[in-house]
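Hi,

Apologies if this is the wrong queue. I'm a grad student, and the batch job for Calcium-binding protein from Streptomyces antibioticus produced an output file that my downstream script rejects. I'm not sure whether the problem is my script or the file. Here is the sequence I used:
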Amino acid sequence: MGKQVWRVVVAGCAAAAFTTVAAAPAGAAEGGVSFSRVQVNGGKPIVIGVSEVAVPASFRMTTTHKWNYPAVFLYRKGADRLWHAIETSDCIKVKSDVCDFNETMYFDPSVWDMRNSEAGAWKVGAEVYFKGGGADVDDKGLTVQVKRNSRLTVNASPEPVAKGKTITVTGKVTRANWETKKYGSYGGRLVGLQFKPAGATSYTTVKKVYSNGSGNLRTTVKASKTGTWRWAYNGNTTTGPSTSSGDHVVVK
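Support response: The file is valid. Your script probably expects a header line. Output copied below for reference.
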């Protein structure tokens, strides 16, 4: 995957742009810098659909060197880095040689090329470029899961329905395809059918159903009380979870 631009916000909102370095961090390149308090997306997986996603990150940097452009980023051993742009705040000074930074990573499969194989585990690195040349690049020992977004639809019928009669609930599971930049059918997924009675505040899983090869879901239940039906998918190591909207059915 070619990572074209690193966009960094510096003092006065001036922007610096340059080509990324493909090598993954293998410890300090120059030394003299310590990165700590590194967080990416609050420790949660990064779920990406087919349009731009902005992901928050933060870190602390301690150094006496004169520096430019500190950032944290995602990488895999033997692979390129994963991001399309990074914006880093000015130094939030803690003391003379310590700065905190807020950062935003941008991922946009609608503009840049992404491979579906890039879903999964990525390592977190941190780096800073020094004024006059040189850099420090560190592996922070953190792992972030990057996932393809999933979507669910639902339809429950007939509406309304007589008590004791059969309700047919259908739907479809789709998943972001980063290579086609569209959502595609996601077959063979185990999806929960959930129900929330009228007046209740939470859903209960009634049964679980596998989607067919086209991602379609279909099952039947007996109408017992008025309420709302929906589908819920828990996701997996490469795919984010999703729930459909609710379809309200009145039972007479």
